[in-house]
Amino acid sequence: MDKRSINIDLGYHDRQLEIFYGSDTRIKVIAKGRRFGLTAGMARYLIDEMINNKIGALWVDTTYSNITR
Questions:
Q1: What pLDDT is recorded for position 48?
Q2: Could you count the other beta carbons within 10 Å of the beta carbon of residue 39?
Q3: Distances in Å between the alpha carbon of 38 and those of 1, 2, 3, 4, 6?
Q4: Alpha helices (H) along the chain
Q5: Mind listing the pLDDT tens digit for each residue in 24-64?
C-alpha cells in the first residue's frame, strides 16, 4: 500500500445510502429505530465527505457517549 493513500471501508446498508445520498435536501426527517445505525452511518458519511469533497465538519450530539463510540 502506498503511504500516501488510505483505504477505508465505507459500507452502508440500503437505507443509509438512501438517507445520505438519495437527496440533496438540507434538512431530512428520518423515521428509524434505535439500532438503525444512523450514528455509525453519519460518521462514515462525514469521513467520505471530508476526504472527497474537502469539507470541514463539527460533530454535535445530545449524548456524549454517542460521540465517543
A1: 86
A2: 14
A3: 31, 32, 31, 30, 24
A4: 14-21, 38-52, 64-68
A5: 888 888 888 888 988 888 888 888 888 888 888 887 767 77
